[in-house]
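Duplicate of #3305? Posting structure anyway:
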């Protein structure tokens, strides 16, 4: 379904996030209003990059990937990337855990990999 949307509507905006222009992703596009946007094509390609990276660092089938962060386009790319790689995205929300680094929580979530 996701790949189909990327193939059918590669140039339509799929995600948008209001942020400072200096924090935008390399494949996203920024406007003067401060919105960073990803087309379906960009979103799909970035998600595939995440999947390849997770496989490269050893993610196994059905392995958990702990993702520390708040609601952002990158969080969704990470979660979908985990699924594309055969794993499961596990949200580690920093409002629930006082530590900044996910290493103290990965055992609790049974994740193979954790990152922020």
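Output from current build:
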């Amino acid at each position: 379904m996701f790949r189909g949307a990327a193939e059918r509507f590669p140039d339509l905006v799929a995600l948008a996030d209001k942020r400072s222009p200096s924090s935008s992703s390399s494949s996203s596009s920024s406007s003067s209003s401060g919105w960073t946007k990803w087309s379906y094509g960009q979103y799909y390609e970035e998600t595939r990059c995440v999947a390849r990276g997770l496989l490269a660092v050893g993610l196994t089938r059905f392995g958990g990937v702990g993702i520390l962060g708040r609601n952002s386009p990158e969080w969704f790319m990470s979660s979908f990337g985990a699924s594309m790689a055969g794993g499961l995205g596990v949200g580690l929300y920093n409002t629930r855990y006082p530590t900044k680094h996910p290493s103290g929580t990965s055992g609790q979530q049974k994740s193979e990999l954790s990152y922020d």
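Confirmed duplicate; merging threads. The two ends are 27 Å apart (CA to CA). Residues 2-115 form a domain with the Rossmann fold fold (CATH 3.40.50.980).
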